[in-house]
Amino acid sequence: MQEPLQTRMMDQLWDLQLSNGYITDEDVIKLSRQFNLSEIEVEGVVSFYHFFHRKPTGKYTIYLNNSIVADIKGFSRIKETLERESGTTFGSVDRTGTFGLFLTPCIGLSDQEPSALINFYPFTNLNAIKIKDIISSLKRGVDPETICDSPADNIRYMPPGNKTVFFKEFANGSAFARATTLGEDGVLEELKKAELAGRGGAYYPTWKKWSAAKSQPSATKYVVCNADEGEPGTFKDRVLINTQANTLIEGMIICGYTIGAENGIVYLRGEYRWLKNKLEAAIDEYKKAGLLGTDCGNIKGFNFDIRVQMGAGSYVCGEETALLESLEGKRGEPRTKWFFPVEKGYLQHPTVINNVETFCAAARIIEIGADAYMSQGIPGSPGVKLLSVSGDCKLPGLYEIEWGMTVAELLELCEAEDPYYIQVSGPSGECISIKEKYRRISMLDLLARKDIRCGGSFMIFSKQRFGKSAAKFFRILYV
For a surface tag, which of 61, 176, 419, 477 has the fewest beta carbons within 10 Å of its beta carbon? Predict the structure, then answer.
C-alpha cells in the first residue's frame, strides 16, 4: 500500500535540520507545496518538536542532559565548563557559528551521567577535563562521531542459574519458526498462558491487543514498536536495542504473522539517533536471511517488512495515539479516543503498538515456551521485568528481576547509598520512602500488599537530595 506523502514529513525535516543546522523560511514554503499543506501547518509541525530549530544551531550542536539524576551527578559543573570552553551560553550559538549549546531532558543515559549529545552522538560520564578535551578536538575540526563514547550496557543483574529471559543467546528465526508451528491462534494462546502484559507501565494483556487487531476485517494492518522511552530515568529499551535488536525484530515479525500485517515501523526517539544504524543493520540481516520481505521464512503469502522512523524530541509521543500522529507527519498530539489503535490506528488502519521490551519478551516466550517463562516470578505475575536503576547507588544500570522481588532486595543489589526515597516509573509514577522498602515489585495491584507496578525506572535518592531538587525538576518537566 502506498502511504500518503505527508508520512515522510519527519524524514524531510530531519534531513534539513542535520544538513543546515536549522529549518529556514524557504524550507517551510517548499515543504508546504510538497505536501500540499499551508505554511502554518508545516510551521506547527516544526515548532512542536524539540530537535527541530528555526534558527542556526551551530556546526556542533550540543544537548546537555539536565535531568534530576544528571543534576546530582555534577550537571552544574559541566554546564559551566561547556559555556567557558565554547565561548557561549546555553540557549545560544557562539559568534563564529561553531558551537550551539542547548539543555534537554533525559536522554536515556541516566546510568552514566553527566551525559550529552553532540550532533546526536553520545558523550557519557563527563567531567571538566573531558569537556576541555572534547571542545579542543572539535575546534580542530574533529568529527564528533570519531570521538564519541559507546555507552556501556551496564547489565548489572540477571536471574541466577542462567535463567535470564532477555539476554541468553538467540538464533535468528528460531522464535518465528516455532510461531509458524503453533499457528496464529497458538501464538495468542501461548502469550495468554504466559500472562505477558504491555511493559510500558499500563500492563494491558498483549494477547488481547493482538487478538483484537487480528479480528479486524481490514486488509491493511500495521505493527508499530514504540521505542520512544522518554520517561526520565528509563533506559532499558536503549540496552535492548543495542544488544537484542534481533529479538525486537522477531517479536514484530511474529506479531505481523499473527494479526495479518505486512508493515512494521519502529518509532525511535530522537535521543537514540546513534542507535539507528545498528537497528537498520539488524533489519538488513533479517532481509538477507529471507525473514523479512516477500514470503518471510518461506511462508507463502506472508509478506512483512520493517522500517525505522525517527522521532524528534517530544515526551508526549510516548502516548500511543500521539506517536501515531507523529508517524503520519503531524504534531505529536494525543487523539480523541473514539477508537482504539487496534481498530483505527496508523492511517486509520488496525495497528498493534507495543514497546521494545514487550516485543522482545514476546519473541522469547514463543522461543522458550510459556511454561519455561512461567517458572519464574510469582502467581499472578509470572516471568521477569527489566528495571533501569540510577541515582544514589554504586551500581547503576539494567536489572532483569523476577517479579516479586522487594524494593529492599533491589536496593541491596545496586548497592544503594543511604537511600531515603525512590521515584518509581519516573515523575508520572509514584514516590516511595525507604520505610516502604519491603513492598514487592509485581504486576499485581493489591491494596492489601501494596505491590509496586513499575514501568521500568527506579531513581534512588539519599536523604540530602530529598525535597527541593526533585520538586523543582518535576515541576519544570510538566509546566
Answer: 477
